[in-house]
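Budget justification note: compute hours in this period were largely spent on complex prediction jobs such as the one shown. Inputs:
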Amino acid sequence: MRRMAAPLLDALVTPAALVDLDRVEANLRRVAAYTREHGLRWRPHTKTHKTAELTALQLAAGAVGATVATPREAEVMATVADDVLLAYPPVGAGRLARLMALPTATRLTVALDSREALDGLGRAARDAGRSVGVLVELDMGMRRVGAQSPEEAVALARAAATTGGVTYRGVIFYPGHLRSPVPEQGASLVEQTARLRAFVDALAAEGLRPDVVSGGSTPTLWRSHEVGGLTEIRPGINVLNDRNTAALGACDWSECAFSVLATVVSTAVPGQVVIDAGSKALAKEEGLAMAGGYGALLDRPDVLVRGLSEEHGLVDVSATTWRPRVGERVRVVPNHVCAAVNLHERLHVLRGEAVTATWAVAARGW
Amino acid sequence: MRRMAAPLLDALVTPAALVDLDRVEANLRRVAAYTREHGLRWRPHTKTHKTAELTALQLAAGAVGATVATPREAEVMATVADDVLLAYPPVGAGRLARLMALPTATRLTVALDSREALDGLGRAARDAGRSVGVLVELDMGMRRVGAQSPEEAVALARAAATTGGVTYRGVIFYPGHLRSPVPEQGASLVEQTARLRAFVDALAAEGLRPDVVSGGSTPTLWRSHEVGGLTEIRPGINVLNDRNTAALGACDWSECAFSVLATVVSTAVPGQVVIDAGSKALAKEEGLAMAGGYGALLDRPDVLVRGLSEEHGLVDVSATTWRPRVGERVRVVPNHVCAAVNLHERLHVLRGEAVTATWAVAARGW
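Corresponding output:
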């Protein structure tokens, strides 16, 4: 086979999603060291990147398995991970059939918060002749899903422990509100530890002590060890990072490993340039940064994408002397990397300015 | 070949994008009658649906050609349309090469607002031995792209008229601000007509009278005839419609032909149910309706999707007695149909409750 020269960045048609592999590897080393130091199992949420290749790198760096949210993510990640956690209630015959069709060698665990979901999963697992682990979802203040009280958690855990086809393994929650911009909607770290202990103690008193206590997210990542009782964390974003994560102080700008390459297509309106990365390339997600906007230039973080229509990104150059010409290229760090990646068919993987690989965003859709 | 029975709605794995064909056909008849009545050419923007199949229906209903924004859309729509308008500046060698590779039988016209874009297009067209039409983009108050003054428009039109490989055909603008929620950023209908006349008169005075004056969008669709001098309109959304269009009064709720089928996956939090259509199925686009939210139930428009995370839609049921159970299905009309369609691989086409076809959203990406 002839060895092909790596294409250069300049050859890509824009908009194009870029991943800086040096930064990815540094991000992987950082979380691996942190979880090792604190005795936490690291089970990254793969919804951020939706690629088998990046999951494989995470596993090689020390991750114990993959977290997924959809059947498609489970199918794709099961090609490289033998331990998969579906952190989402498996409801509906179609979704259950897809889960049961995963390779029998895949150790599958599922999060749920209702008897309906548990009963459906148990039936499907028995019919398929497989055993599926169950984590009872707890609401730790996010008010999205999860048992509202220790009593509810105990009732569901007891049902899981006595349902054929499934094995009760522990509890799971999402703590992303901890450092959210509206912290009053959530709970403080101390309150969260106390709330978690109330759940765990109630379960233990009924002989249902959880082996797994799964929490963690990128905004709260580096304080996970302060939450007593955690056994594993599931950060997603931190492998790539984004503008919101930097604004929250959970990463440095130099740790942002994802960007969208775009071309300046118009400079007609004074004080503004238009790039060919709009809401269909960057995702129209609000910024947490005080400065607003939908993204910032990787090499000029003070220059913001102020407006988005579907194929137009409006870059505000009114406060800079930089005046790019039509045809010039820029790299944009979006506010929310998970939403942006999901808009692209492939990620172009860079070492410096050379494209060394192309990864299919294979787990898009459901 | 064995005729297969049409699958039923119930058999789809959720979330699933649905198109109600009866409503589509009614929407097509309505715009066809309007444009016929007012002597306007109808060139629908196909970025809304990104399918060749729906473009074919639009052409059969009387559309004169397809409007597109990206090379991929041009490639897909050229399989069914022989007249394609790229309403986007073609900047960059990669994009130009893709355009020049379109079938030679495709009549191609391109919008642009800079000498750089014009010169690049002319070179590419000459190299490819084809002739490409040019429309000069005008800024009619949107402040996104387009010539800022009649003088700028004249200079660019003159350059187009004298550049080899291209043919100057007229002018184009986007009037979507007309009925936007922040009308002070735009111009009134009377101001717009006056502004357009100033551009057209200046061009005519220099022997550059535009054959094509292309405007129109869904919010302004039904008042297009009030803008003097228009020759064609390019509405995109109106074939499917959405919650924002209904909120603007540009369609009736019963004309919304697109919805996302979703399953209730959790009812743990009081006053709320969680569905499996989140921001990756509905798009997190702000609503124009006073009521806020990211979508509303097709059959219960007063029940709103109040919050979205990636795979969770938080449906507010606090003000209704309706209490769906886990496993129940609902249909959601999103705020912005173009952004929602772009998140799906395929559209399931319905006659009543039967799925009669599946259309690939083939023009996603670039």
